Amino acid sequence: MNIAVQKQIPKNTFGLICTICEQDEPIISQRLFPYFKNRGSKKLLSLGVMEDAANSNTCPDYRGDDYAVTYKDNMPGFYKKDVWHEVSYDHIRMHRLNINSLVSVITKDLDAESAHEEIIKDYFFRIGTLKINKRDVPIFFARRIQFQKILEEVYNAVTKRYGINKGIILTSSSYLPFGCSKLLGHEVISLKDCMIHDSENYHIDINIIKAAIGAKEKQEGFSNGYRTAYFNGIEYKFTKKQAAIIEALNKHGGRINKYELLAEADSEQYDLFRIFRDSKGVYHSAWDVIIKNDNKGNYWLAY
C-alpha cells in the first residue's frame, strides 16, 4: 500500500472528485467547495487536483437562489428586488478539477510504472502498467465514458493501438454502459467501486483490479481430458471422440499420418474429417485453425 498517497485524500472527498469529474466542465463553485473543508480541500489545492478558475457570473442568496453578479466600486454583488447585496470575492470564486493532476495522483497510488499519456484531451489517458500474473497490464483512465460520444471516441482510440495487452480502464463514472468492457477489449472499472473499504482515506484496492483482470482471463491451452481448449481468446469444446484425436496429436507433437493417428486415438473411424464434421457437413470451429492437414493424410496441431 502506498501509505503516503493513501493518507492524502479522504475517501468521501475522492468520491466527490469523481462526481465533479463527470461534469462536462469539471468546475465547482466556492460556495460548495467549503464542503471539502477538513476533508482534504487544502490537500486538493496543494496537489494541484483542484485549482482556481474564473469567477462565477452568478451568486446565491442565503436561500441558495442564484442571481447575476454585478459590480459596484470593484466589489461583486447582486440585485434582489432592486436591493443591492454586496458579497466577497470568495462567494463567486470557482475551482476547476485538473484532470492531468488527478491522473498523476492515481498513478502514484497504484504505484504503477508511469506512462502518462493524454490520448483524448481531458477525457482519456494512458496511466502506465502494472505487473499482474507475471505480465504487464496497461492501465487507462477515462471520464464521462457513459456518454455514447465519449465511448465511441475511446473505442476508436483503443482499436488503433495495436500490440497493447488487455488491460484496465479506470473511470470516474458510476454508471457503465452495458457491454462496454467487451466493446473496448479492456476491463472497465469505476473508481468508486475499487477503493479500499476498510479505510477512511482514498486508496485503490489492487486486489479488486487483479480479480477483475484475472476473472476474465483463461489459461491458454487444453483442459485436462482435452474436452476444451482456449487459444487467442477463443474457447473450443470437443466431444469425447474429438478429444481423443486432439490428445493424440498433442502428445505426438508433430505431423502424423491419419492411420497412425486414428490407431493412437483408438478410433474405429476410417476418415478423420468425419469426426470433426457434423451431419450437415459443417466442420468444427477448430478445424483448419488448430487442427491442420496437408491434404495428403498428415495432420498436426497449430498453436
Describe this structure in words.
The structure is a single chain. It contains ten helices and 19 strands. 28% of the residues lie in helices and 27% in strands. A five-stranded mixed β-sheet has the order 9-10-11-12-13. It has a three-stranded antiparallel β-sheet with strand order 1-8-2. A three-stranded antiparallel β-sheet has the order 5-6-7, with no helix packed on it. It has three domains: 12-96, no CATH class; 99-215; 221-301, Arc Repressor Mutant, subunit A, CATH 1.10.10. It starts with a helix and ends with a strand. With 303 residues, it is of the alpha+beta class. The model is unreliable at 1-6 (pLDDT under 50).
Task: Give a short synopsis of this structure.
Helix content is 28%, strand content 27%.
Strand arrangement, major sheet:
9-10-11-12-13
Head-to-tail CA distance between termini: 39 Å
Structural class determined from secondary elements: alpha+beta
Helix proportion: 25-40%
| Number of discrete helical segments | 10
Low-confidence stretches: 1-6
Radius of gyration: 29 Å
What assembly state would you assign to the polypeptide chains in this entry?
single chain
Q: Tell me the overall shape.
A: elongated
Q: Would you report the number of β strands?
A: 19
Helix-strand layout with pairing:
Blueprint: H1 3-6, H2 11-21, E1 27-29, H3 41-47, E2 50-53, E3 58-60, E4 66-68, E5 70-72, E6 75-80, E7 83-86, E8 94-97, H4 99-110, E9 113-120, E10 124-132, E11 135-142, H5 148-159, E12 168-171, H6 180-184, E13 187-190, H7 206-215, E14 221-222, E15 228-231, E16 234-237, H8 240-252, E17 256-257, H9 258-264, H10 272-275, E18 291-293, E19 298-301
